[in-house]
């Protein structure tokens, strides 16, 4: 009886301790790991799986790569974790994207900025797209822009992210290209691209600024019209008929790269090992198919090249954020 | 017209697929029963496995759909036995499920909820088969304004839960709404109540919230009672194991009504099993709670949310299969799985890849029967959980809660947050608050605010948009009637009865 009550009193703290310790043990394990700074199922999950499945199937790693989810703070929790706790883990990569660069530029990752981590490389890219319903009055981006100039605060834009997120940026840049202050734009923030698309089909919003890859199921259905792809040049099938914004005379580009970073104190040796791994992967034909199945387009920037690319991008976004009135 | 379904049964009845449907159902029940691991995580865990095993598309989908429907079955177990919801959809199941278990009716409660789950899911799958393309068109008519009206309706239907202490119910709901406010404000990008902590930017995660609020506070209550030997604290006797046919039949209308409502809620993109559970429970209480026993272990109060949450799970396949738009977080993950196999959901799916669309729907029928067959006999076994002594049970729940939250967040802050919420929940319970209004305020309040803000950004601030469409007007009228009728009816009825006398 005495034992029982003592056990009762101490069991809870014991279990808590045990749980915390398994947490640490788990963090110190040796096989490769990719942190997806989000819940399962989103773009970061996809980014981690792309590396995990690719590296395994092409034999570049022998043990399966573990994918860990670390949601919170639109990626800030993982960023702080890698900076503060696992700053020199040679086996850890973290998924990142253009969205993370936007958040870094806006100072949403707290005390840390873009130069805190070692940017490793990108394995694929998606592009923004400007989408309207098939029966909308605008046949081209030019039509929409002219109309937008006439009545800037009448046309309703929507996308799957908050004001200040990368989804919003696409709408803001479009407005800016039409010579309108993004602050005047009527923008509706949904939770994810699916909800935004449903709102477009139900005529609740008129323009959806989404991504090309998520539109693939809808190209054939004939229910939506993609006015412009926000890529440098036209991308391949099934998007070949979609004109870019640039060829319609508007300077709007929005590549959404999918890449990885490592801790700030990772050794050059570990960093280079990963760089070679990813470079080899990017050249692999089997991997090209996997990337295509995930709706991504080729992008290959690694090592220092990628590091300077991201830092340059963050600097650009900082400038942009000022121009569109997000920061002072 | 139903060629795809016949073809689908051909696909689903091959030994491999049948085995996968069974495996999915079993694993799903397990994932659902464990607090913290819900259908989304279950599917995220199994998806890479299915892909690595090289399963064909329809087989992988059958496995994953089995996990999804199985999780909605499994979520009710810990709700009934431990008063801890196993997943989001099972929150309302605690209200009458756990009191039943305390009365020694754990076995029948588990059995009845398995039957209700079956009935709800079956109604929804039939609805999916017959009306999918048509419903998809209606679902997109629900815009932010209509969702706002729907949430107003849901809140006013919650008024029946006021019960003995309307003020505490109100305070509880407001607390829930306040918790939902935490995080980045989507309309402006401004942080609210985050105190500069990155962990709070995305708001309080649903799983952290229910595990903290229910599981941790339950553990604290158990510990508090550990050294006392009140009569109420005795382990309840495990009485009968099987649910009787009479009990099942007494709930048949509750199941059918809730199945239909749950299906409709599931079809709407953006509302899921938790909303379905809340709406079906409150509706059923309004319709059939004549003697005011809901919340004290009424069988109908258990059957309604269980039928509802399973129906909504099947309903959320409608927008996914026909429009390629996920109706819930879980179908969003499934959609990702389809894309991996180079399958593009949409109206063309039924003609271009009938083996996938048909196979999936057929496997839902089969999986559902498998789940019933699996869950009915297991009821007796699981009911024995209650006979486990406290000194084993409490640490076991604690382990599940901690591991569940940690595997989801890989971050200690989430654990601390869960503990804080747990202590908060414990204090609320000590003060005589019910937790259901808090969690409903949190779920519905968040959706309500988001959609109000969205509607107003569409209209540019004009409130008129909120009652512009027929759907929203209908919902507003229904909401007003819900509030006024209970007050008006007694005034009208006596006159009638006088007149007839």
Tell me the CATH architecture of the largest domain in chain A.
3-Layer(aba) Sandwich
The quaternary structure here is heterodimer
Q: What gap, in angstroms, lies between the N and C termini of chain B?
A: 56 Å
Radius of gyration of chain B: 22 Å
Tell me what portion of residues of chain A adopts beta-strand conformation: 15-25%
Spatial ordering of strands, largest sheet of chain B: 1-2
Query: Low-confidence spans of chain B: pLDDT under 50, at least 5 residues?
Result: none
Number of domains of chain A: 2
Largest sheet of chain A: 10 strands, mixed
* Order of SSEs of chain A: HEHEHEHEHEHEHEHEEHHEH
Could you give the count of β-strands of chain B? 2
Domain module tally of chain B: 1
H-E order of chain B: HHHHHHHHEEHHHHHHHHHHHHH
CATH secondary-structure class of the largest domain in chain A:
Alpha Beta
Secondary structure elements and their pairing?
The complex is a heterodimer of chains A (328) and B (501).
Chain A: H1 2-28, E1 33-36, H2 43-57, E2 66-69, H3 76-84, E3 92-97, H4 98-105, E4 118-133, H5 141-150, E5 156-159, H6 166-177, E6 186-189, H7 192-201, E7 207-211, H8 212-219, E8 224-229, E9 255-262, H9 268-283, H10 285-293, E10 297-302, H11 303-323
Parallel strand pairs in A: 1-2, 1-3, 5-6, 5-7
Antiparallel strand pairs in A: 3-9, 4-7, 4-8, 4-9, 4-10
Chain B: H1 3-12, H2 15-33, H3 39-52, H4 57-82, H5 93-102, H6 106-139, H7 144-158, H8 166-181, E1 183-184, E2 191-192, H9 206-225, H10 245-250, H11 252-267, H12 273-288, H13 299-315, H14 317-323, H15 329-340, H16 349-352, H17 354-383, H18 390-409, H19 412-430, H20 435-459, H21 470-500
Antiparallel strand pairs in B: 1-2
Helix pairs in contact in B: 1-17, 2-4, 2-17, 3-4, 3-15, 4-5, 4-6, 4-13, 4-15, 4-17, 5-6, 5-13, 6-11, 6-13, 6-14, 6-17, 7-20, 7-21, 8-20, 9-18, 9-19, 11-12, 11-13, 12-13, 18-19
């Amino acid at each position: 009886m005495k034992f029982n009550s003592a056990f009762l009193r101490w069991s809870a703290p014991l279990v808590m301790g045990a749980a915390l310790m398994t947490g640490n043990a788990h963090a110190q394990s040796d096989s490769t790991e990719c942190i997806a700074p989000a819940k399962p199922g989103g773009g970061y999950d996809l980014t981690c799986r792309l590396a995990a499945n690719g590296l395994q199937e092409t034999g570049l790693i022998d043990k399966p790569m573990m994918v860990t989810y670390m949601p919170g703070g639109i990626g800030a929790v993982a960023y702080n974790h890698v900076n503060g706790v696992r700053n020199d883990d040679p086996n850890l990569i973290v998924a990142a994207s253009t969205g993370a660069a936007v958040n870094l530029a806006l100072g949403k990752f707290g005390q840390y900025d873009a130069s805190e981590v070692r940017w490793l490389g990108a394995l694929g890219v998606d592009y923004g797209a400007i989408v309207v319903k098939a029966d909308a009055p605008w046949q081209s981006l030019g039509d929409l822009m002219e109309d937008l100039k006439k009545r800037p605060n009448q046309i309703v834009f929507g996308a799957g992210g908050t004001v200040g997120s990368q989804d919003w940026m696409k709408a803001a840049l479009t407005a800016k290209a039409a010579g309108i202050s993004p602050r005047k734009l009527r923008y509706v923030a949904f939770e994810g691209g699916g909800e935004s698309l449903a709102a477009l089909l139900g005529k609740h919003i008129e323009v959806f600024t989404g991504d090309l890859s998520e539109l693939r199921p809808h190209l054939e259905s004939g229910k939506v019209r993609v006015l412009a792809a926000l890529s440098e040049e036209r991308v391949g099938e099934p998007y070949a008929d979609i004109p870019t914004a640039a060829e319609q005379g508007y300077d709007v580009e929005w590549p959404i790269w999918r890449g990885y970073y490592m801790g700030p104190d990772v050794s050059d040796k570990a960093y280079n090992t990963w760089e070679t791994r990813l470079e080899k992967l990017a050249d692999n034909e089997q991997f090209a198919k996997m990337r295509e199945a995930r709706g991504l387009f080729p992008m290959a920037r690694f090592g220092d090249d990628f590091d300077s690319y991201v830092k340059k991008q963050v600097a650009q976004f900082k400038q942009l954020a000022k121009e569109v009135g997000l920061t002072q | 017209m139903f060629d795809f379904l016949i073809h689908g049964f051909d696909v689903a009845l091959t030994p491999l697929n049948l085995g996968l449907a069974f495996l999915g159902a079993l694993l799903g029940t397990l994932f659902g029963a464990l607090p913290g691991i819900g259908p989304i995580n279950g599917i995220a865990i199994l998806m890479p496995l299915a892909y690595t095993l090289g399963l064909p598309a329809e087989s992988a989908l059958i496995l994953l759909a089995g996990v999804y429907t199985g999780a909605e079955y499994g979520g009710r177990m810990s709700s009934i036995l431990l008063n801890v919801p196993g997943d989001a959809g099972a929150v309302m199941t605690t209200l009458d499920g756990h009191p039943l278990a305390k009365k020694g009716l754990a076995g029948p409660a588990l059995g009845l909820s398995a039957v209700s789950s079956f009935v709800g899911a079956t109604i929804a799958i039939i609805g999916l088969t017959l009306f999918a393309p048509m419903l998809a068109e209606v679902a997109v008519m629900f815009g932010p304004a209509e969702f706002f009206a729907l949430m107003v309706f849901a809140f006013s239907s919650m008024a029946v839960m006021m019960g003995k202490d309307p003020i505490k119910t109100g305070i509880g709901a407001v607390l829930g709404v306040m918790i939902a406010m935490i995080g980045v404000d989507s309309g402006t990008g401004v942080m609210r109540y985050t105190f500069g902590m990155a962990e709070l930017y995305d708001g309080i995660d649903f799983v952290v919230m229910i595990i903290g609020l229910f599981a941790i506070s339950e553990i604290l209550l158990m510990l508090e009672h550990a050294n006392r030997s009140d009569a109420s604290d005795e382990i309840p006797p495990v009485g009968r194991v099987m649910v009787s046919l009479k009990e099942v039949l007494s709930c048949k209308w509750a199941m059918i009504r809730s199945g239909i409502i749950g299906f409709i809620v599931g079809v709407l993109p953006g509302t899921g099993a938790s909303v379905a559970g809340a709406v079906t429970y409150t509706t059923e209480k309004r319709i059939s709670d004549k003697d005011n026993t809901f919340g004290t272990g009424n069988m109908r109060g258990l059957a309604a949310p269980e039928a509802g949450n399973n129906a909504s799970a099947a309903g959320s396949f409608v927008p996914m299969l026909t429009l390629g738009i996920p109706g819930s977080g879980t179908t969003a993950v499934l959609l990702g799985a389809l894309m991996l196999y180079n399958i593009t959901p949409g109206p063309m799916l039924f003609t271009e890849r009938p083996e996938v669309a048909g196979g999936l729907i057929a496997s839902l029928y089969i999986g559902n029967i498998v789940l019933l067959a699996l869950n009915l006999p297991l009821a007796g076994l699981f009911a024995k959980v209650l006979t486990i002594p406290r000194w084993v049970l409490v640490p076991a729940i604690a382990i599940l809660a901690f591991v569940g939250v940690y595997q989801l967040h890989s971050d200690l802050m989430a654990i601390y947050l869960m503990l804080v919420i747990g202590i908060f929940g414990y204090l609320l319970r000590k003060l005589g608050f019910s937790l259901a209004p808090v969690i409903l305020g949190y779920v519905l309040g968040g959706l309500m605010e988001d959609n109000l803000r969205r509607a107003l950004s569409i209209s540019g601030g004009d409130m008129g948009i909120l009652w512009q469409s027929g759907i929203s007007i209908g919902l507003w009228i229904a909401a007003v009637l819900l509030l006024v009728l209970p007050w008006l009816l007694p005034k009208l009825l006596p006159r009638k009865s006088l007149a007839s006398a």
